[in-house]
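Hey, quick one: can you model this chain's 3D structure?
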Amino acid sequence: VTAVPYSVRDLAGSTPSLAQDPRIPPAVFLPSHAAAAASGPQTHLSAWLSPLPRSMLPAERDAVLPADNTFFVFFHFPVRVAAIRMWNYSKTPTRGVKEFSLTVDGHTVFMG
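Sure thing. Here's the predicted structure for all 112 residues.
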């Protein structure tokens, strides 16, 4: 599991308080038991938060970033996936994912 940009931790140089932010890609699959018990899988503690690449300062970019945020899940062997459940967690209506696409083995299976 990885992402580009990885998380708001990429902004830690300009905002040191983000260096330990728990909203990293693996958190999407491994919510803490306390967070899940408190508010279900939609909790901010079992989420991924990443800055938009175009909003990052040049010094915060490791390399050339894609225009959009990208989340990757790799399997080391063939896996059958029966369902993918996603929550668009955002504290305010103006935040959160506006549109996304899902690509499996190089084929776009959803875009919207």
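One thing worth noting: Strands lie at 2-4, 70-72, 101-104, 107-111.
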